[in-house]
From TrEMBL:
Keywords: Hydrolase. This is Hydrolase. GO terms for cellular component: membrane. It comes from the Bacteria. Transmembrane segments: none annotated. Residues 27-130 form the AB hydrolase-1 domain. It comes from Streptomyces cellostaticus. InterPro entries: AB_hydrolase_1, AB_hydrolase_fold, AB_hydrolase_sf. PANTHER family: HYDROLASE, PUTATIVE (AFU_ORTHOLOGUE AFUA_2G14860)-RELATED, MONOACYLGLYCEROL LIPASE. GO terms for molecular function: hydrolase activity.
Amino acid sequence: MAMIDAGGIRLHVQRMGPPDGRTPHATVVLVHGLLTDSLASYYFTVAPAFAAAGLDVVMYDLRGHGRSERPPDGYTLDHNIDDLDALLDRLGITGPVHLVGNSYGGTIAFGYAARHPERAAGLTLIESEPATAAWAAKLGGILRRVVTQLAYNEPDAIAWITANRGHNTARLAKGAARLARETTLGRDIPASRVLTEEQIRAVRCPVLGVYGGDSDLVDLVPLKQALLTDFRPVVLPGHEHSVLVEAAATVGAHILDLIRSVAGAGAGAGVR
């Protein structure tokens, strides 16, 4: 565990390498989702398998999440992309990396790849999409409900979540309520700068999209296929938005396949 100063904000970082001490052949950076998520969703699912496969695995808590610093403001998508950029610089990772993002983490990862195409060897979006005007409107609606129904009606909301979803989910919801109540996150994210169609098309690295078969994000697959040069969709039937946790082994295997295919292409992207 380490706390890294990423350009004025301290971020909690965990890093794993091959357990046998061999030199990693590529770096994969794991970016988690919003509000109830943290790097733990990777630490207890795919990260150990990635390290065992010979990868340098970097995961971190987004600003305001987990053990990272929680400033009162500064939560736009650009702030999170800047954090990722600064973090890689502080860690001395200069070559192309494989970016994996779950939910909002995928939006951050895609934004980073659009801004720094030379540093993205491959990109995996798990139940995620690039930042567009439609995405901002959808996130705005979700965050408004979080603020009104959870952050400012916390006792009743937590009691219902405990009764219907269990104590662990209720604990995560309490953290989300505090983040929404004490910061400008709920206003900042919907007001974020979004990508143009041209900027989305400019992402040329291989992009893996992993979706639950019962998720509404499956409907966006044809659009991504039309916009992206190398988009590889995987749909897992019987799952919804929590596919990373529910089908970790399958999701992880698809990500490793993508990383191996990039290495096999002979371009050397992501090789350290």
